[in-house]
Amino acid sequence: MSFEDEANPNYRGGKEQTVCRICGAEFDYYPSEKRGLYCPDCVENGSWQHSPDVDGPSNPQWNGGKVERKCEICDIIIERYPSDFTGDVAVCSEECRRTWLSRAFTGSGHPNWKGGGNESYGTGWRRVRKRALERDDYACVRCSRTKEELGRNPDVHHIVPVRTFAESDAHEKADAHFLENVASLCIACHRKAEFGKISKTVLRSLIAD
């Protein structure tokens, strides 16, 4: 049994004729298909198609272009795209990056930290560190790894860094040492927090829970 032309139950009278919107030539098309707008030659050529403008502000992922930040170490101004910066920290060179890492991971920030004095952090640090570990059950508040799993106490991280208080005219280092400003973190989570991969808001919510 044939299903060609009129014998096809979907037959609607064959092709119709229309005019190409580009070159004005007449061409045939099946009305059952998408409405004919362009003749086969123009479709094949494709020169009428325009690539969308995705440069600068026209890009749907545009977030304002380059921004200026001050190097954490030498204070020179850096101009880069926001995605090129690592968290809240901006450094201009590999040398400054190494210097920043050395400072950031000194004392309790160092992966091998096992306790010690409070000379660099001022008075009150040892006390609040002990209280934070007890509050957090000696486990990382983010990934829940325990002291036994880590083989040591978790680090105790300042949510607002000590240097922020030290650099303030109205505060001193010791003002950073209060229970709501510290969170117990494993080495990996501590590093993420230092590089801004875990936000201050998230850390505060974790210790509040």
From TrEMBL:
Gene Ontology CC, one term: cytosol
InterPro entries found in the cross-reference section: HNH (IPR002711), HNH_nuc (IPR003615)
Residue stretches making up the HNH domain: 140-193
Pfam annotation, one family: HNH
Keywords for this protein: Endonuclease, Hydrolase, Nuclease
GO molecular function: endonuclease activity; hydrolase activity; nucleic acid binding; zinc ion binding
Protein name per Swiss-Prot or TrEMBL: HNH endonuclease
Taxonomy of the source species: Archaea, Methanobacteriati, Methanobacteriota, Stenosarchaea group, Halobacteria
